[in-house]
Amino acid sequence: MPFFIRKKTTSKSKTKSKKDKKKVISKRVRTAAAEVPAAKRARPADEDDEEIDSDEFEDEPAPADEPELSETELETAQEKRLRLAKLYLEEIKRQEAGREEAEEVDRAGRSVADRLRDEVLERAGRLQRPLADSCVQPAAELVRRLRCRQLQLPVTCAVLAPDDKFLYTGSKDCSLIKWCMETYKRLQVVPGGRKGTENTHIGHTTHILCMAISTDNKYLVSGDLSHLIQLWEPASLTRLHVFRGHRGAVTGLAFQRGTHQLFSAAADRMVKVWSVHDRSYIESLFGHQDAITGLDALSRERAVSCGGRDTSCRVWKLVEESQLVFTGHRDSIDCIRLINEEHWVTGGQDGMVCLWGVSKKKPLCCVPRAHGVDPQSRLPRWVSAVSALTNSDLVASGSWDGHVRLWRCAAGFTALTALMALPAAGFVNSLTFSGSGDRLVAGCGQEHRLGRWWRLREGSNLLLVYPLTAAAAQQQHTDSSDDDGS
């Protein structure tokens, strides 16, 4: 058994009992542990060596270590200021991160709420996005001119693909042309044929007057002077079918958005409904008293048309099997385009651009002599084309005064305000906005779309592409620079 030796104690300490010795030793050890380390404690010189059991020593408490100073007690005043500054900056960062996260959540919530509100307003036909203020006057050198040798007579109609990558045009030379809107090059041409070869020629043999494309980019249709509606596959311009049934020139075509249901209007005063997917006829709608000159449709199962010299617009409700009649022009209405489900714009031979709503039988507002007065006849110039950016406040109109004019719809569609005038020589027979509203395509020619009352020698048979936003103008400028470099 291990043992410890101490110096002998005095005779007085020897007389103490073993029990008393244990108490004294325990007391001394505790006192020494509280005051100084055990290693530095001096031993009494007069103590006798004695034996201590290891079991007894194990019961004694261990000596305490010296207390260590913390980092905060050791740092200088400058280090303390630096540490507090870092803590303050970290707290600010945490607060800013929390604020940005809250703002992001708030923006996301507002975005969802705005989208839901827009969808409700769009279904109700009352959505009006304020996009007119974002339009800028393009420089003359940024207006792209599209022409080719196959385009020999006036352009009568043009439609953009849903993705705005391709443009399809029809003209009086019976040719159907596909253009690339990125390179502004001609891609494909379906040439026109001679009159009387309708049963053998793949294509049109008379003037193409109207076109439409489905929202899924699956079907393209074109109507001509020989009462035919031809169905095409847009990617390859392969003819799929020919719809027959009209007894007059087909002057208007429109797909119901999101479906393959087609509306057609013709000079036989009828509006017909077709199922393009089934290649079948559905029904005919009667009511106009003169040749129909224009037609348009959006998402609802209804269409709007203008009846030429009967000076009326009609809203056809297929589900309700009814129609609404609107009058207000003093002469033939030549063109019509929907702004949303409840409002549309028209142009006529009385020189007026009129804004309409389903809640009123008369125009909500009219712009008389929108394109000035002809100096020879002293009559207002005919409005030959109108267009509207869907669910917005932007409207365009064309005539033969040398300009395409843009208009802003006031809140609630109560007024039309002139926005800007874009240069365009000849008759403007077609106007089409891109889906985002950053570009406007005008189809021009030396003659009117529906006849040959005048021939303007200063005009040209071509297409004009106007950039309407700063981003589109910059992109068009870049494309022009690339073309010059190549």
How would you portray this structure in words?
This protein is an alpha+beta fold and 486 residues long. It has three domains: 25-64, no CATH class; 84-124; 132-485, Methylamine Dehydrogenase, Chain H (7 Propeller), CATH 2.130.10.10. The protein has helices at residues 11-14, 18-35, 54-58, 71-74, 77-124, 470-485, and strands at residues 144-146, 155-160, 166-171, 176-180, 186-190, 208-213, 220-224, 229-233, 238-243, 250-255, 261-266, 270-275, 280-286, 294-297, 302-306, 312-317, 322-327, 333-340, 343-348, 353-357, 365-367, 385-388, 394-398, 403-409, 416-423, 427-433, 439-445, 462-467. It has a four-stranded antiparallel β-sheet with strand order 1-28-27-26. Strands 2-3-4-5 form a four-stranded antiparallel β-sheet, with no helix packed on it. It has a four-stranded antiparallel β-sheet with strand order 6-7-8-9, with no helix packed on it. The radius of gyration is 44 Å and the shape is elongated. Residues 1-19, 31-49 and 54-58 have low confidence and may be disordered.
What's the layout of helices and strands?
Elements: H1 11-14, H2 18-35, H3 54-58, H4 71-74, H5 77-124, E1 144-146, E2 155-160, E3 166-171, E4 176-180, E5 186-190, E6 208-213, E7 220-224, E8 229-233, E9 238-243, E10 250-255, E11 261-266, E12 270-275, E13 280-286, E14 294-297, E15 302-306, E16 312-317, E17 322-327, E18 333-340, E19 343-348, E20 353-357, E21 365-367, E22 385-388, E23 394-398, E24 403-409, E25 416-423, E26 427-433, E27 439-445, E28 462-467, H6 470-485
Antiparallel strand pairs: 1-28, 2-3, 3-4, 4-5, 6-7, 7-8, 8-9, 10-11, 11-12, 12-13, 14-15, 15-16, 16-17, 18-19, 19-20, 20-21, 22-23, 23-24, 24-25, 26-27, 27-28
